[in-house]
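Lab notes, practical 5.
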Amino acid sequence: MPGFKFFATLAFSTIVAASGALAQPQAKATHKDWSVFVRDIDGDTVCFAATEAKDKSPKSVNHGDIFFLVATWKSGAAKNQPSLMTGYNLSDAPAPEIRVGSDKWQMYVSENESFIEASAEEERLIRAMRRGANMRVSALSVRGTQTNYLISLQGVSAALDRVAAECG
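Output from the prediction step:
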């Protein structure tokens, strides 16, 4: 598992890319496979839990860094917003898919990130993540490569509780 400095760099490049703010995220905790960060963006505080994919396939391609994040804004702009961030641009057809147990969610694509459209579905995913041991994500690159990722859910409940304590 990468250290706080690695995730702080990741958080800096992903969560604030559009805002132009330059303050570094503060590492708050590590809970098994998940880390928690807090950062200020344009007068709001964003708290998030992040983890790196445990397994990537196919093994024969360069995936870059693959992360799953769950972000909450102190202002209430978003709460427990899950997203996948890949090291390549994603295709939107077929849509990336998340599976926890037998439950499935479709995601929409924005370049190298994907999100769940409806907040009710985000909440359903978060509940499943808290109950599950791992999550599987499948996606298609814009080059046509089908990819699959295994995301550990070890520590996600404690990480999300810490996010809620920091930004709830």
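Observations recorded by the TA: The domain at 4-167 is CATH 2.60.40.1880 (Immunoglobulin-like). Residues 119-131 form the longest helix (13 residues).
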